Amino acid sequence: MIRATVTGKIWSSRRIETMPTGGYLEVETETGTRLIAFDPLGCAPGEAVLITQGSVAAAYFTDRTAAIDALIIGSIDDETPNKSGKGRKS
Amino acid sequence: MIRATVTGKIWSSRRIETMPTGGYLEVETETGTRLIAFDPLGCAPGEAVLITQGSVAAAYFTDRTAAIDALIIGSIDDETPNKSGKGRKS
Amino acid sequence: MIRATVTGKIWSSRRIETMPTGGYLEVETETGTRLIAFDPLGCAPGEAVLITQGSVAAAYFTDRTAAIDALIIGSIDDETPNKSGKGRKS
Amino acid sequence: MIRATVTGKIWSSRRIETMPTGGYLEVETETGTRLIAFDPLGCAPGEAVLITQGSVAAAYFTDRTAAIDALIIGSIDDETPNKSGKGRKS
Amino acid sequence: MIRATVTGKIWSSRRIETMPTGGYLEVETETGTRLIAFDPLGCAPGEAVLITQGSVAAAYFTDRTAAIDALIIGSIDDETPNKSGKGRKS
């Protein structure tokens, strides 16, 4: 999995039917890579999240074959230090 | 998923039988990476699209085992700001 | 999928039994990355081809569980402009 | 698989239900890439570990469909030289 | 698939049960990337090998769900020129 920060939300009115309804958040990894992940948790901009990728992301959806390859699976608790070694809980 | 812009279309007259008929669009990501994705939506050059990759792309096709590893799953609505932070809807 | 150019052929006399017999071509992508793909079409050096990767490549083989993760699925027609924007059909 | 070194642990109190309980360790590869892997072995910071990625990581869990795409599958024995060629067992 | 050269062997005494017994070789690709692959062929250091990655590597094992994401599927014959264009058979 990868650690990333939520940077925004995207909307897609014109899309394939099997796309699950819900939040599609744009996230940025520590190396600056950006990707878009389905958000089952309702995360907010700036939140540190844990992302899983590939077919395991699609397997989360039990009611359909979802064309999803990135999924937010958790919000990272504050006391987990990031690269700079500082725990983000002041 | 990744955000990309449609840059063109490719044709492949000589191909394996299980390749679905339809549009094969060339797209460019924000980092300049180019890939080719199957387009079930009829997108146009310059359009911002959402791409899913890997076996989840192939799973979209229920009538065959499609050798497809990249699929356009949606067109990104204009008011979604891209990296420059500007919403593209003036 | 990715666009690549055929640069050569590889031979592997000592290999696992489930490897399908046929052509294993070395290809180079536009960014210079090289990989080896199974070729069901009989492509030639210099030919522009369309490659699919991952488990969807293996799924092409219906008679075995093939340990193949890259497959040539089509030859790209000449009038498809490459990065330089020139259509290769003079 | 890839070789990596354990650099820390992450906690995620707010997460999807199907996430297995257990250790989620942050690891760094030889090229400095960081990722987070599920740890079934109880590894310690500084330990050299072997990581598998993708759907094969999720397949380790037989009691659920786990949204896990990286798994520690072994601790690398000391006498295995790393890139610098030195065996780490003095 | 990718072309790589065997650079060494790794040992992992403390590991998950479903890891197949056999050789785990460290290999280096032409771009210097290093990874570890299961070796069903008994390859030697310096040997040029063909590697398949992802779930197709795990599918090679029919007796278990193997947490393997990289597999040596063949030894590349000498007369296959590498990037420098020289056939390695003098």
From TrEMBL, chains A, B, C, D, E:
Organism lineage: Bacteria, Pseudomonadati, Pseudomonadota, Alphaproteobacteria, Rhodobacterales
Protein name per Swiss-Prot or TrEMBL: Ethanolamine utilization protein EutN
Keywords tagged on the record: Bacterial microcompartment
InterPro entries on file: EutN_CcmL, EutN_CcmL_sf
UniProt cross-references to Pfam families, sorted A to Z: EutN_CcmL
Cytoplasm in keyword set: no
Keyword Protein biosynthesis listed: no
Gene Ontology annotations for the cellular component aspect, listed alphabetically: bacterial microcompartment
Main location: other
Entry-linked Gene3D superfamilies: EutN/Ccml (2.40.50.220)
Subcellular location: Bacterial microcompartment
SUPFAM superfamilies referenced in this protein's UniProt entry, alphabetically: EutN/CcmL-like (SSF159133)
